[in-house]
Amino acid sequence: MRRINPSKFRIAHRGTSRDINSQIVLSLVRTHQPISRADLARTMGVSRAAVTLIVNDLLARKLIFEGATGETVRGRKPTFLYIDSRSRAVVAADIRASQTFLMLADLLGKPLAGIVSLPTRREPKAMIEVLAAGIKKLLAEHPEVESCAGVGVVVPGMVEHATMRVLHAPTLGWRDVHLRDGLAAATGLPVQIENSGRACALAQMWSLRADAVSIPSELVFVSVSDGVGVGVILNGELLRGRHNIAGEFGHLPLSLDGPRCSCGANGCWEAYISNRATLERYFGRAIKADGPEDAAHRTFTIDDLVSRARGGDAKAIAALAATARYLGLGLASIVNAVNPTCIYVGGEITAAWDLIVDAARAALVERTVTAAAAETELRPVPVHEHPRLHGAAALVAAPAFAAPVVA
Amino acid sequence: MRRINPSKFRIAHRGTSRDINSQIVLSLVRTHQPISRADLARTMGVSRAAVTLIVNDLLARKLIFEGATGETVRGRKPTFLYIDSRSRAVVAADIRASQTFLMLADLLGKPLAGIVSLPTRREPKAMIEVLAAGIKKLLAEHPEVESCAGVGVVVPGMVEHATMRVLHAPTLGWRDVHLRDGLAAATGLPVQIENSGRACALAQMWSLRADAVSIPSELVFVSVSDGVGVGVILNGELLRGRHNIAGEFGHLPLSLDGPRCSCGANGCWEAYISNRATLERYFGRAIKADGPEDAAHRTFTIDDLVSRARGGDAKAIAALAATARYLGLGLASIVNAVNPTCIYVGGEITAAWDLIVDAARAALVERTVTAAAAETELRPVPVHEHPRLHGAAALVAAPAFAAPVVA
DNA sequence: AGCTATTTGTATCTTGATTAAACAAACGGC
DNA sequence: GCCGTTTGTTTAATCAAGATACAAATAGCT
User: Fold this and answer.
1) In sequence order, which ranges of B114-158 are alpha helices (DSSP H)?
2) Closest to B337 (Cβ–Cβ): which among A247, A267, A370?
3) For helices A353-367 and A314-338, what crossing angle results, to 10°?
């Protein structure tokens, strides 16, 4: 039951019904492809005539195409329909503290080439130049891509959705940076920008691997790395909030008098489970970025710690176990607050998923209010699946399949 | 941008556009009443012809009626339209630990009579009998009510939305109680049941006082009493979650090793700000329900504490100040997690709003991640506004004005 | 009183959508 | 070569929005 906002509503016009059903057809082709008109009519519960008309329209608009004919036990063979992902590619960009990655993908998010690495520049102007050059090079190397639908950019920081300004990206040292217009001008392509945690959540929602039909419309992505980024999807829609900070679960407290967090407060979840927190737990003290005595520690990563834990290093195992427990305690807050169907966990620590999942689950059980909620599905998303890049691609590609807003 | 759920979608059929626009008209009449057809056409951005057709349909269905003609500077005078709230009343019921309250309201939520008080029975069967008798009596005393659209019941506990079972209501000692069917059978009316915190959020969203147009579609209601109940509304829709526990912010931790909470965990927000927590802070020790030495304390309520604070009692002031601080710290978690436009705070403690608002705001500022979010509007909802009863009424009345689900 | 300008509300026709039902096309098997 | 079956299309019916013209009501002015 949704209230119609009396100051912001959309009335239905003549073409609204058609728009709705067109998008449903597109979505079904996307998830069920290959699929025939008759199958569409059956799963949609409408007549084949209606499907034919919509399909012909989508064919004329080059959004789908007819492929091979399928097999049936008896009767006329169906002609299969496919999303026309050949002609419209997207470029995904993932800006991180030290490196920036580029990926060329088709409209369904499937990578069309290897991932390109670029240096990250702190100067916004320089960054735009590097990005634009990389994008042009990438597109030039792939002339088979007829046209590019746009560029999706993911940054580790807060982004204002309306203007696409990067409000604050601590690891990049950015405040109030306006990337979009410059990049759009330099590339001649539409540009979408989003926070990386949120983009990862989008990537999961729009993912097509395995059975895409079963991906829930209520999910949360928790990205654990330098900070803790969270993306919340409810009712198939990304939650942004009034001031673009919804989903900042990384800064909810576990203990008000807990360790100092980069945000200035004490006891944030992030201060317990970030990679830095885990490493400091291992070393038994704080790691200063510029302390000379920490030179060796600075090059020691979570991956190294996980290796040592697998090698039997008791201190590494203990550090991971503690992180696992705090991870679960924080996940309990997410479950109690949002109660999603599934929580995806990303970040380097997923390399140790088998080592941490039990402790995390135990902590989750400890603080969730019902048994059913305590069993909320947890799924690790390995680093090599590149959720941030897939999220960046989804920023551009997904709107083509989104539901029209009405009422 | 909303993803169409490929296994749960609704296609548009012939009447869908009309349904959408009809509901928009109804909603606008509800919020702008009295309003003319011409005004509707202007605010909707459609032709007067289209409005006339929809309005005539709604008139024929007796959902609205034509009232007096309005005034204009020049030209033909408009005929005003009103929601036909006369013929369809609703009964709201608020089941609390010791007492149960009944209210008769019209379809817009306006009370049609005084609030009736009944004894609460622990036995579900007895409770159903008491409720049904009270409802019948109430309707018999008001023969001017032509028909009753249903009964909305609010309980202090978890409710499974699909079946309307009360899964767990600690203060009533209920587990897995099925009120609806019995009550529906006894009264012959449809029955809706919901958790009280959520119902309060609904009450705010569907409220018509002052300028209803400005009520945000993203809001949270925090009800502070024996426990802490929270209702979250996003995109004009109540958030329930996969297992009906979404919005259990009362059991997010402020400190993992904080005071024991009724849920079994330590350091829940509820354990810091419930009425009991505030009172115990005042008395300097735990209050046992059956301890003989606490006889005097058991009859001492939060209202009494507020009176003493206003009288200058330093201990009372300190107890309230501490509660205010913890209230703000927990509100920060809500802001960081959901980032609503407005948070409504209900419960007895709102009687001391002027005493606590500054400390609460300061704590909120302390732990929110941006300045804009720290300024999230806080509004007290006094007890005498009966948000739970209005929420119960909205359970039955609001669906008539809800947006059709499509795509 | 009558005319004019103005606004509200209605009627009519066109366009475009879904729906139902008939029809054409393709195909395997007897 | 016919039959049953399934896919995909065509056609006519129905219904909604949109455009436009029109009728109705009203105040002000002459």
Assistant:
1) 124-140
2) A247
3) 40
pLDDT digit string, tens, across residues A61-110 = 889 888 877 777 677 888 899 998 877 899 999 999 989 999 999 999 99
Q: Is the pLDDT of residue A386 over 90?
A: yes
Task: Enumerate helices (H) and strands (E) in chain A, giving the number of each.
Answer: 14, 17
Query: What six digits make up the tokens of A364?
Result: 């989750």
Backbone angles phi, psi at B387, to 5 degrees: -60, -35
Size of interface A-B (CB pairs under 8 A): 273
CA dist., res. A19 & res. A37, Å (int): 17
State residue A294's pLDDT score. 57
CB A376 within 8 A of CB B375: no
- Polymer length in residues for chain A: 407
**DSSP-assigned letter for residue B243:** T
CA angle, residues B347, B255, A375, in degrees to nearest 5: 85
Please write the tens of the pLDDT for every residue from B98-146: 899 999 999 999 999 899 999 999 999 999 999 999 999 999 999 888 8
Q: Rounded distance, CA B333 to CA B373, Å?
A: 11
State the pTM of this model: 0.93
Question: Which residues of A fall within a CB distance of 8 Å from B14?
Answer: 17
> Does the beta-carbon distance from A255 to B256 stay under 8 Å?
yes
Q: Are A278 and A316 in contact (CB under 8 A)?
A: no
Spatial distance between the Cα atoms of B393 and B132, rounded to a whole number of angstroms:
16
Assigned token pair, B402:
């809800």
Identify the closest residue of chain B to A26 by CA–CA distance: B4
Residues of A in contact with B368 (CB under 8 A): 245
Quote the tokens at residue A34: 């290959």
A292: closest CA of chain B, how far (Å): 32
